[in-house]
Amino acid sequence: xxxxxxxxxxxxxxxxxxxxxxxxxxALAAANEWIEHNDIDVVNIETVVLPQIWERSEEGTTxxxxxTSGECSSTWHQFIRVWYRK
Length: 86
What we know:
Number of strands: 5
Shape: elongated
Helix content: 10-25%
Structural class: alpha+beta
Oligomer: single chain
Largest sheet: 3 strands, antiparallel
Order of helices and strands: EEEHEE
């Protein structure tokens, strides 16, 4: 069976004027560590870019209903998705 695991930069500071995230490289390091420590049979690794994956939903990277508006500013986030065999 094919499965996936997502590695998104974590929020390190959240406040009234916005959020600060760890670096994309930190998410990559987490993915590499997970692969190494779990002996994962990797099928593919991709970078996924989605709008507002934390602002509108609790589902984050697996939210299937993400919308943006042309009149509003939009924040886009990138994360790493590892596809693997189980």
